[in-house]
Amino acid sequence: MGKTIGIFDSGVGGLTVLSSIVNEISESVDYHYVADRLHAPYGSKSIEELLDRSRKITEFLITKGAALIVVACNTATTQVISVLREEFSIPFVGIEPAVKPAAQLSISRRIGVIATANTLKSSLFNQTLKTHASTCKTYVRVGEGLVEAIETGELDSKELNELVSNHIDYFNSKEIDVLVLGCTHYSFVSRIFEKYLNKGVSMVSPNEAVARRVNTVLEHLKGESSSVTSISIYSTSEELLSLSKLISSANLQADQLLHVQI
Asked: Which residues are designated catalytic?
């Protein structure tokens, strides 16, 4: 039996993580990705709601043969991944804002983090700040409206540009030199962020680090490599057109795109 990786996010943001994983892993793998778009966004949900959704999706991915699950959502990682690890016997790889590399990269010692409300108030995020960015002045901002706008698939819209510009104005006023993209959705519009950021400001995301970690865990899993890589993408929402656009934007080719009830 081939190696199978399950991945989930509240919506399309994790597709950027999936793309990084596919590029990192040389062996053939079966990927099963769940976009929980019917219940997005996760950023304002209670821990109880997040845990309920994460459990159900994990169980679904296990039925698809997943021997490793990537929680490709900053909010779900910071809020519930520890419980998932206790309740299920397979390994989980999470994702959290790339504060450590941002602090290492910053020269001015002024960094910005844009993420969801739940991520920014989580104990894991604040502990990460204390551990890795104690010598930096850190400016945080809730990326209100960004997830919903990106989910439409209209990545070149005037409305999305104005929304990003408004958020970036805040960080530019703080004279940061590194901005952490603390939600996987934001990688879809990194070029728009770059357009409005002051010259010389760097952006960091955790996607590549997560991909390397997945590759390491995968090497220790039992199972032979598949003959070919396959990618199956499932949405809990019946609206698949915008999802199809975003799959293409993430430089992925899905073997199947299906609506599922989970």
From this structure: 73, 183
